Amino acid sequence: MKRGVLVALLLMPSVAFGAGFAKQSLFLSRQSVTEGETVQLHAVLANEAAAAFTGQILFNDSGTKIGAVPVTLASGEGTVVSVSWKPLAGSHPITAELTDSGGAVVETLKETFTIAAKPKPVSSGGSGAAVIGSSQGIQSGIGNVSPEVAGVMAPVFTLVDGARSSIADVLDAQLTGTKAAIGPSAGNPGQVLSAEATKNAASNPMGALWFILQTLYFYLLTILRFIVGSAGVFYPLVAVAFLYFLWRMFRRFRRPSY
């Protein structure tokens, strides 16, 4: 949340004559959170009383303790209290309970947060879907910089990841067929011709040439499969290609016409 919003929250009185939470002040450090990620859970406090306040805030998730933070506020002072939280997927009713030094509950704040499930790759085989690397890490990085952009790009990532899975299926099928055609040498990068192919190369040169072409095709498929399956390789390459395309278009439009 932007600093200006935090300042505004700090200046909003929640309890007219004592310490308490600012209005709607329980929030996460990121708008989009996926299962397994660590996020900061924040609460904003303000002390409108004439005397100083000492106590603590206890954060709970459906009755399970997340953490407790001691609080000391001078008269008229405000602060933001935070705890680290690594939630599971699903809906989480979070409670922040403010107590004084004697253990008496001063105020309770509740908010429900929904955590997205971590994408699980589907193994290739019966389902027909190939295993590909998740783009969730890239989306989370974008969300840390700009949650608005991350929200707009989420459907694009979903569409592209679906296309990656389909392409990976085709490449896997090609790899399986090509590997069966060229035999054991497919698993040995140092061996281009199998022993049998080497023996028959003199009597069947076209067969040996075809075998070499199939082997090179197998290695090309392996490289393409790695690029498509790895989100950390695929998306940077796509970004570079897109920037190159924009640069070429810019050069083309800047070129004077005669």
Mind explaining what this structure looks like?
This protein has 258 residues and is an alpha+beta fold. It folds into two domains: 3-115, Sandwich (Immunoglobulin-like); 136-254, no CATH class. Helix content is 42%, strand content 26%. It is built from six helices and seven strands; from the N terminus they run αβββββββααααα. The protein has helices spanning 3-10, 136-145, 147-182, 195-200, 205-229, 231-254; strands at 19-28, 39-47, 53-61, 64-73, 78-85, 90-100, 105-115.
Number-wise, the strands total 7
Number of helices: 6
Percent strand:
25-35%
Order of helices and strands: HEEEEEEEHHHHH
Q: What's the N-to-C terminus distance?
A: 53 Å
Radius of gyration: 29 Å
Low-confidence stretches: 1-17, 122-127
Give the proportion of residues in helices: 40-55%
